[in-house]
Amino acid sequence: MAIDALAGGLVVFEREGLSLVRRVQIGWTPVLLAKPLTYVDRCGEAVKLLLRAHAGDPARTVILYDDALLPFGFVRVRSRGIDGNHDGMKSILRELWVREIPRIRIGIGLSPTTVVSLKVLREDFTDPERDRLPGIFQGVAAALAVMVEGKMDKAMSLFNRRDIPLDKLPMLAPEAPAGP
At what angle do helices 43-53 and 87-96 cross, to 10 degrees? Predict the structure, then answer.
């Protein structure tokens, strides 16, 4: 859902290898958005193929993924790390043999009794959560824009807030219309 929002909504993706891809501009930087067509536990294969095809560097790749343990609406920006028990990141790290892969973890905030696969695969958000998704995706786009500028530390300091959800950050609030 976040990738679709970054692509501008209802746009056509093209198949390339094991992914659907779309080229976009983020700030001044051309970016290749990709949605793996594999199961999540094999998405590393799709990432590896794209990096080979585009002579890509894992350190200049940003992985977006859901995080069931992170509260809904919060994100964590990281330049490197372990898999955090996420099957997709396990697959990516296993295929690429590096940990220096920037990522944006998007909190979906599950309760301990929720079945994770149903929540994620069915996009089973409550109505209030669904109403907040556009603001969250706007925040993800803002974080990604800072990251592709090469300002990882700035992205982490701006967006890794523990006290306020991404869609409520003052810097992302819509500007009030100018008055007379």
Answer: 40
Within 10 angstroms of residue 124's Cβ, the number of other Cβ atoms is: 13
Cα–chain center distance at 46: 16
pLDDT (0 to 100) of residue 98: 86
User: What are the structural domains of the chain?
Assistant: 2-170 (3.40.50.1470)
**Number of C-beta neighbours around residue 57 at 10 A:** 11
Handedness of CA 51, 52, 53, 56 (dihedral sign): positive
Give just the sign of the alpha carbon dihedral 16, 18, 24, 27. negative
In residues, how long is the chain?
180
Which uninterrupted H or E stretch holds 43?
helix 43-53
Residue 49 makes CB contacts below 8 A (sequence gap 6+) with: 17, 18, 19
Q: What is the pTM of this model?
A: 0.85
Beta bridge partners of 30: 25
* Amino acid sitting at position 30: P
- Please report, for the chain, how many H helices and E strands are present, in that order: 6, 6
* Per-residue model confidence as pLDDT tens digits over 79-121: 998 877 788 899 999 999 888 899 999 998 876 555 555 555 5
